[in-house]
Amino acid sequence: MNRKLLALTIMALVALAPLVGQTQDDVRTVVRGANGFALKMFAQLAPGEGNVFFSPYSISSALTMTYVGARGPTAGQMADVLGFSLSQDRLYPAVSELMAGFNAKDKPYQLYVANALWGQTRYPFAPAFIQAISKYFRGGLREVDFMGEANREQARGAINAWTEEQTANRIKDLIKPGILSERSRLVLTNAIYFKGKWALQFKTENTRDMPFVVSKTKTATVPMMRQKGEFGYAEDGGVSAYEEVRHATSMSRTSIGVA
């Protein structure tokens, strides 16, 4: 059986209790739109062969930063795809509050969301764009030089080093050689790092090598964690799910946009 895996960020779980009134409503609106975008994107990716594993929030965050600089029909089309229904003066503060909830320190797990802009040195970016990114996305502009092979390699190294640092050394060499060019003017990066513990810990001694179904015709033998217990379970429309964990194991994701 070929299984499709969706790494869907269920942002409705972010602590909204400290927020009140309009701010809380706007954050919930952003969450609904972002989750809708995730499901629409999954619907586009799922028909292909193999598993699908992606971080919708990373993608939508990077595109939302791009949206800050969009105008006219482009802005309208991006808002439709990303599920934006708020005016910009309410959207960006809500996005900022959502990110602050992710990065809050008073949680029994580690979750960090970081953004950064990498722009061509001395390129005339609109000051309002840079200010909005810094204020609402905590992602100030870092000037790099894409002109000349040596300079591009240095810029690539700086972006990759930032990504590695933000993801606790999990993601290395994010931007491969050849992705950047002399026509590159702006790279937008989003990095997510998460580390937590299972609510019910798996015992190492119970791990067994077992077959994992890769496709209809292929299996692979891999170490499988095992435990017994009573868990909530549901099936609907060919989807099966069980409820057991509050915090998953560590992972990190990034998304990039190169313009």
Describe this structure in words.
With about 260 residues, the chain is α+β, with helices and mostly antiparallel strands. The chain has a domain at about 1-105. It is built from six helices and eight strands. The chain has helices spanning about 20-45, 55-70, 70-80, 90-100, 125-135, 150-165, and strands at about 110-120, 140-145, 185-195, 210-215, 220-225, 230-235, 240-245, 250-259. The strands form three sheets. A four-stranded mixed beta sheet has the order 2-1-3-8. It is globular.
Question: What is the secondary structure topology, with strand pairs?
Answer:
Blueprint: H1 21-45, H2 56-68, H3 72-82, H4 88-102, E1 110-120, H5 127-137, E2 141-144, H6 149-166, E3 186-195, E4 208-213, E5 219-224, E6 232-236, E7 239-243, E8 251-258
Parallel strand pairs: 1-2
Antiparallel strand pairs: 1-3, 3-8, 4-5, 6-7
Looking at how many chains there are and whether they match, the oligomeric state comes to single chain
Strand content: 15-25%
**Coarse structural class:** alpha+beta
* Count of alpha/pi helices: 6
Which sequence of SSEs, written as H and E, runs from N to C? HHHHEHEHEEEEEE
Keywords:
disordered C terminus; two-stranded antiparallel sheet; 8 strands; globular; disordered N terminus; single chain; alpha+beta; 259 residues; 36% helix; four-stranded mixed β-sheet
